[in-house]
Amino acid sequence: ERALHGRLVRLEEQNRQLLGQLAESQSQEDSTARKEREVMLRLKEVVDKQRDELRARAHEIVCKSRDTEALQEQLHRFMAMNEDLRHKVAVVQAQLKSALEKKSDLEAAMLRTQREMSRRSRTASEIQQPKPSSEGAPPPVEEPQHQDADAGRSPAHCCFSREELQQILQERNELKTNLFLVQEELAYYQRELLNEERVPSFFLDAMKSTIKRQRKKIRAKMLGTAEESASSDEDEGSWLPARGADCVDAQPPESKIRSFFGLWYQGSSK
User: Fold this and answer.
1) Are the C-beta atoms of residues 142 and 127 closer than 8 Å to each other?
2) What global pTM score does this model have?
3) Can you give the residue ranges of the RH2 domain (predicted)?
């Protein structure tokens, strides 16, 4: 009995030790699981944060790439506008140089004309004066010489002053400038329409015929001649909407160039 009792006591003591070890191991496992859970939660938070940052960076990169493309397109447009402006400045400078040369030529021509007119007026006055030897009858050669002197004068010299010639020159330069601006605008719209793939072909043909008609009308106004009759191909663009008062189709004011050349041709026919 003593041996059994001692053995039972030892077994109970071992059982208590094992229970204590089991409780310690369970507590250690619980603490380890808790630590692992905390670590996983922290890792999840870090991963979510990094994923959000990556998404924000990707969106920022996409926005910057779009902005870069827009800036490149704007740069190309500005370069094209700069090239057009350079071309316009060069044309305006050439027109200014030509206008100055024309002005100097007109001034020289006016001086020569004035000198010629003064010389002819003096000659006519000398011819019209009666001679002392023939006071009773006028000389028979006086009237033909006077008529020849009047016929030698150009109607442009008799009917136009210096200010009117300057107005003619200014009107000519304005017409040349308007023609250049219209050509540049039409070329721009041509480029825009040709780059657009959705524009139908008949609209492009109508635009081309309209461009030809506008150029012919402006050229006729610049030269002061009658406008050429439009062909059947050009009449196809007549369905386009009419422009306002600024259009070249509107009734223009009285042109000094047209009146100048009209008098010139009348004097030549006489």
Assistant:
1) yes
2) 0.32
3) 157-234
